[in-house]
Amino acid sequence: MLLIGLLFSLFFLQMEMYKNEQKPLSMDNEITALKEKIEALEAENASLKNEHVAISQAKELYLKIFEEFPALIWRSRLDKLCDYFNKTWLEFTGRTMEQEFGNGWAEGVHPDDFEFCLNTYVTAFDKREAFLMEYRMKNKFNEYRWIRDFGRPFYDLDNTFLGYIGSCYDITEIKDNELRLKELNATKDKFFSIIAHDLKSPFTSIFLSSELLGEYIKEKDYSKIDEIARLILKSSKQAMDLLTNLMTWSQLESGRMPFSPVQFDIKSVCDEIVSLLEPTAKQKLIKIENNISPSLVFGDREMISTVLRNLTSNAIKYTNKDGKIKISSAPGNGELIVTVEDSGVGISKERLDKFFSILENNSTRGTQNEKGTGLGLILCKDFIDKNGGRIWVESTPGIGTSFSFTIPLISEKEEMN
């Protein structure tokens, strides 16, 4: 506009000279000055054009960088709606720009995280503040992954607010490690709790019984020696079982326990367990029915033996006098289902939901006041997981409980090969 004004001034000045038919020196100077201003304005205009081209090229370059950037990049406008997602974002979600445009991207946010995600974004946007939030978002495999989203306001060169831009990173592994660390800390606390409390009880019993035994012998009163000896044996066995489970569990948690899967007959393992525990069952007049059929399975024999021993021992502990324990198996879909069922006291629904977790105290006294730690069931779960199987429990209070687990079954064709 300034350039046009100068041209008009020059035009009227020339017209005035023409009317007066004269050309004073002062008029020449003014014309020269106007020409110089016009040239300066033209040069400034050319410079601005070059700057505009450079800015446009820079913006295009930034967008190209964003496209290939390993982070998930998004951009929103003044209306808070998104108008850009980079290539990494679209590849992660498996969706198109049109699908994500506006607020379409929110369809991938986990329902439990949506309100938190929206409130964080809107609150920060209204205050023109940067934000950091974590939420779960669905990827192209239809899996929810944890996302850490850094959002910040961005401005034009003249400091005009344009909207928000954000970069997101998949932190699922970090979240998993945090959860694992939390579980390990809780496990460590439980471990020391077991050592401090549950080991103290049997050793105290052994100590007091031994002291009492010594006094009876000193007084030559032998009438209760047999009873005290049985008590010492019982407490010693309890302490040994606990120590064995603690050592086994410690080896497993630290990764020092070898895993040696082989083909073996599950019936032979069950026969060994029944032979080992039958004397204990007979003391409570409990009958053990071993109905497992000869079946060739694939897994770590020692681990599966430990699982069967713990489950059968628990069944004896929580079954009343004259009760029954049945161990059975059934093939199904490439695996063998092994079940240890008792006619014991049963387990409430509330406690069933907390089984197989070291963070919960699942230990209760048996029908003859037998003590336990609940660690045996944790070992069972870890061992079955290690062997690629599943373990679960079903129970009815007052009726009984059945623990079942699966282990890969060797087919006749595989056996021949």
Task: Provide a count of the helices.
Answer: 13
Share in β-strands: 15-25%
How are the strands of the largest sheet arranged? 2-1-5-4-3
Report the average pLDDT across residues: 80
Radius of gyration equals 40 Å
What is the structural class?
alpha+beta
How many β strands by DSSP?
12
Question: How do the helices and strands follow one another from N- to C-terminus?
Answer: HHEEHHHEEEHHHEHEEHEEHHEEH
Q: Might you state the CATH topology name of the largest domain?
A: Heat Shock Protein 90
Measured between the Cα atoms of the first and last residue, the distance is 92 Å
As a percent range, the share of helical residues equals: 40-55%
Largest sheet: 5 strands, antiparallel
Q: Give the overall silhouette.
A: elongated
Task: Give descriptors for this structure.
single chain; Helix Hairpins; five-stranded mixed beta sheet; 12 strands; 4 domains; 417 residues; five-stranded antiparallel beta sheet; elongated; Beta-Lactamase; alpha+beta
